[in-house]
Amino acid sequence: MGGLRLAYSTRVVDRALPSAPTKSRRPWYIGGAIVGTLVWVVGLSSALNYQRLSSSVVSGTLFMVRYDPRVIDLVGDKVDYADAWPWISGTVNHLKGKVNIAFDVTGTKGERARVRFSSQRRGHSWHTLEFTVTRQSDNETVDIGHHELTDQGAPFALEHLE
């Protein structure tokens, strides 16, 4: 046969190869872990705040603050939580016998004040350690005083229930 001749030659290209596209799922795992942790922390914090907000201690404390004439002079009538979703800082621990809470209130004067309530159980009776309302604009403080406390450590006043 007449000859068909095929020529094969090898060419060597001496340059760096392009980087392979990253198919790693590691960024997705890290991002998911961060988002999951954030959701968990916000959810747990909100649940614990709701638990404190729903406690009889916070309800009793707000009741006493609402009807104390000195607090009404300080922040105005219609004393209520300062925010739509109030944040109750501190702890309410009936098992250990310790209550230490703080939250903000406001009244018709538009003044914001910080309520602090602390009580401790000694034996079977609770004792108030601190019960103050401090106006934030000038730090004027009203000491609500030491009241009889319920068996759960909340302020109790018979004169306001009538």
From TrEMBL:
Transmembrane regions: 28-50
Top-rank lineage group of the source organism: Eukaryota
One GO cellular component term: mitochondrial inner membrane
Keywords carried by this UniProt record: Membrane, Transmembrane, Transmembrane helix
BP terms from Gene Ontology: mitochondrial respiratory chain complex IV assembly
UniProt KW Transmembrane keyword: yes
A Pfam family annotated for this UniProt entry: Coa1
Record protein name field: Cytochrome oxidase complex assembly protein 1-domain-containing protein
